[in-house]
Amino acid sequence: MAVGVLALQGSFNEHITALRRIGVKGVEIRKPEQLNNVDALIIPGGESTTMAKLADCHNLFPAMREFVSTGKPVWGTCAGLILLADKAVGQKLGGQELIGGLDCTVHRNFFGSQLQSFETVLSVPKLAEKEGGPDSFRGVFIRAPAILEAGPDVEVLADCPVPSDDVRTIVPTDEGKKERVIVAVRQGNLLGTAFHPELTSDSRWHSFFLNMGKETGERSLECMAAPGRYLEDRPGKRPRDLPIFQ
């Protein structure tokens, strides 16, 4: 089965590589009719305003809204999360068009500019329950948004402490009672993460996304390499991350 990855701008190549690691074909999506040939859709991270303008230019918004309404799995990471939200704040002058469907309010660039990008260890018990591996995940946040409000049907999968201005590296999870903000949610066939799982070697979020089809009544997108999707589970194997984040 094929998974579409919106390939207008942003980290679409990294998602396709992550899908390949678990034995699933990723298809670059640039035209509305291409959505007819895929079983799920990933909207990658990037620059949300630019991505929205390009999607409008290619007349993709009506087709993506229709795809969301079919119940097939759709996942937005970072900029993709913004586009999937019903409401976004902190936008550039004039705003931007949204796909919608995810009952939440997202703050664009909540964590600041590119210079405020950071990594942190997230607690992800639901991910571990479904996909195995540890109950933590290395979240890579690049000029990242955050979810300010989530509707009653939205399941919160991860949150994180709001970092101080000088945070640039891994932040421990034991931050006491520091203010926390939502960074991963699921609502039916929709998944949203404010961070970039495609920039790590841990493929459990991709596997989790593909297996969402079982629960929404769609065909399951089985992973050929499911038993090894978390590389640390294999004896003698260590995860290899992109050098820029090591």
From TrEMBL:
Residues reported in the UniProt entry to bind L-glutamine: 46-48, 108, 142-143
Gene3D superfamilies named in the record: 3.40.50.880
Top EC class of this enzyme: hydrolase
EC number: 3.5.1.2
NCBIfam families in alphabetical order: PLP_synth_Pdx2 (TIGR03800)
GO molecular function, one term: glutaminase activity
Organism: Phoenix dactylifera (Date palm)
Gene Ontology CC entries for this record: cytosol; glutaminase complex
Biological process per Gene Ontology, one example term: pyridoxine metabolic process
Pfam families per record: SNO
InterPro entries, per database record: Class_I_gatase-like, PdxT/SNO, PdxT/SNO_CS
Annotated catalytic residues: 78, 196, 198
Database matches in PROSITE patterns: GATASE_TYPE_1, PDXT_SNO_1, PDXT_SNO_2
Protein name (Swiss-Prot/TrEMBL): glutaminase
Keyword vocabulary terms for this entry: Glutamine amidotransferase, Hydrolase, Lyase
Catalyzed reaction equations: L-glutamine + H2O = L-glutamate + NH4(+)
Protein family per UniProt: Belongs to the glutaminase PdxT/SNO family.
